[in-house]
Amino acid sequence: MVNQSQDALKNFDPSFLVPGQSIDCVIIGYNEMGLHILVLKWKGMAGWILPGGFIGIGEDMDAAAVRVLEERTGLKLPYLKQFHTFGKVDRGNFNAELVEADMLPGRSSPIIQWLTQRFITTGYLSLVNMKESMPTPDFLTERCLWKPLNDLPDLMFDHRQIVQTAIAEIRNQINYMPVGINLLPEKFTMRELQSLYESILERALERSNFQKKILRLGYLNRHEKKMTGEAHKAPFLYSFDGDKYNQLLGQGLGFL
Amino acid sequence: MVNQSQDALKNFDPSFLVPGQSIDCVIIGYNEMGLHILVLKWKGMAGWILPGGFIGIGEDMDAAAVRVLEERTGLKLPYLKQFHTFGKVDRGNFNAELVEADMLPGRSSPIIQWLTQRFITTGYLSLVNMKESMPTPDFLTERCLWKPLNDLPDLMFDHRQIVQTAIAEIRNQINYMPVGINLLPEKFTMRELQSLYESILERALERSNFQKKILRLGYLNRHEKKMTGEAHKAPFLYSFDGDKYNQLLGQGLGFL
DNA sequence: ACAAAAGTGTTATCCTTACACCCATGT
DNA sequence: ACATGGGTGTAAGGATAACACTTTTGT
Q1: From 1.10.10.10, 3.40.50.300, 3.30.200.20, 1.10.10.60, which CATH number describes the A179-250 domain?
Q2: What is the torsional sign of CA A251, A78, A84, B144?
Q3: Mean pLDDT over all residues of chain B?
Q4: What are phi and psi for residue B202, nearest 5 degrees?
Q5: Alpha-carbon distance A58 to nearest alpha carbon in chain B (angstroms)
Q6: Across the interface, which of B58, B118, B122 has its CB nearest the CB of A85?
Q7: CA within 20 to 30 Å of A172's CA: A185, B101, B136, B226, which one?
Q8: What is the pLDDT of residues A84-95, one digit of tens each?
């Protein structure tokens, strides 16, 4: 593992990459504990970062984002959307921290030369099913895992701001983004769908009105009841009617 | 003029610019004929382009956009907002067209070297008062002027798509963008404000309901009547109450 | 029987929409 | 007086929000 990593570092060849331009992915998952973000921890460094990468010569920027996402999660064809490009000079460079951390071989190595240039980064947000994802570290990272949005560790550079911008985007665009169909399992209860919306909007919704509104939109299929063994009425399970869902998504699933 | 231009071309020094990254501005104005876009025509070339530029080493990307806008319009502190980054490999390169047009000195000149690299461009949209703007060509451009959005000339590269993306953004975000206060003159009639909204939304709005809705929001000051000399009731002139307007803008000027 | 949560119903209120009506202006 | 467009009023319909009521489940 260490050898493999060292080899990768020595063999790092930036000559096929677009210089100065990176992408960072805010990969969002959801479970009963709330929204989660996929983060990486760099070897030998204190802070965590978002999964990111660079753009190949001859590679579309969007394709690079798809590639990064697949490499880190194993998921293909995810929901992925560019949301903002961060172009400040002082985004918190690699320079000081990386070199001081003595994590990488020699100041003059190609990878140090590469990493310490100024980067303009484009943020992508992705909505994925946490349980189907397979978080996978790359050669520079020690760990790769889901962290709750409400209890994120310290992130390096401006990555905290990138996350906040992504969350603001999803909140503003909630009626035009396929949050339910991407973040929930195949079958779910109405309560689970409501909790998802409440997690994103960060406010309580009225239960009975939520139920009626969603059902009136008509993109849910009702299935058998879910017998939880608890002492109350069993809720129905629902699934999305993909066609109707996507059709309605285009004109907005009016909410507030 | 020619000498000055040739000097500028010879003296072009890209060593203080961020390579591979450009910005393009969709500068939007409005008059009684509808929405307009500021476009440039390159010397010796058929197509028009959007005002754009590059980012200085040590210059924030947003600052570069402010600089470009001021250089082309003379306007300081405009409304300016990043809306999308275009990262396809094939955005329509300079390569073929520019060299064939024989517009620039020699294939190996610094400026040709610079222009024919792959660029990822970030689009900014700006809302300005057409009558206060002073369209100003730069050393590479022959003309710089306002063209009606409904009758744009052919644009080079992917600039048509950039404009369309910008217009889609303003249409989607109309309730959260200061369109009225930036696109209209100091004083205006209710009909003029309505026509502006109709131009952006590309659909008719009901006159009396528009009036009541706007007035209910309470950010307009009513002034004297505008006597046009026409044979009907004279409309009031209005102006924006900047404080209330900006305050309401934050939470959206609910429309549809 | 009881508690708890799911599902449905009811009501008041607000916003939108469509259209009617009067008002001011110049011919 | 008349045509024209500005300004205001009104009534129907739809959406929302708050809360009441009924149903189902396991103890």
Answers
A1: 1.10.10.10
A2: negative
A3: 89
A4: 55, 40
A5: 6
A6: B122
A7: A185
A8: 999 999 998 776
Reported as half-sphere exposure (CB side, CA atoms, 13 A), residue A200 has a value of 26
Say whether pLDDT at A1 is over 50. Answer: no
Name the one residue in this structure whose structure tokens are 């990593």.
Answer: A5
> How far is it, in rounded angstroms, from Cα B37 to Cα B50?
9
- Residue A42 dihedral angles phi and psi, to the nearest 5°: -75, 150
φ and ψ of B100, to 5 deg = -65, -35
Q: For B180-189, write each residue's pLDDT tens digit.
A: 999 999 999 9
Other CB atoms closer than 10 Å to residue B168's CB: what's the count?
12
Decide if pLDDT at A231 tops 70. Answer: yes
Q: Tokens representing A33?
A: 């504990």
Domain map (residue ranges) of chain B: 2-172, 176-250
Q: Does CATH place domain B176-250 in 1.10.10.10?
A: yes
Using an 8 Å Cβ cutoff, are A214 and A206 in contact? no
pTM above threshold 0.85: yes
Q: Does A122 touch chain B (CB under 8 A)?
A: yes
Strand C positions closer than 7 A to protein CB? 3-9, 15-20, 23-27
CATH tag for A2-172 (out of 3.90.79.10, 3.40.630.30, 3.20.20.150, 3.40.50.300): 3.90.79.10
Q: Is the pLDDT of residue A146 over 80?
A: yes
User: Which of these, B68, B53, B122, lies nearest to A87 by C-alpha position?
Assistant: B122
Residue A5's pLDDT band, with cuts at 50, 70 and 90, is low
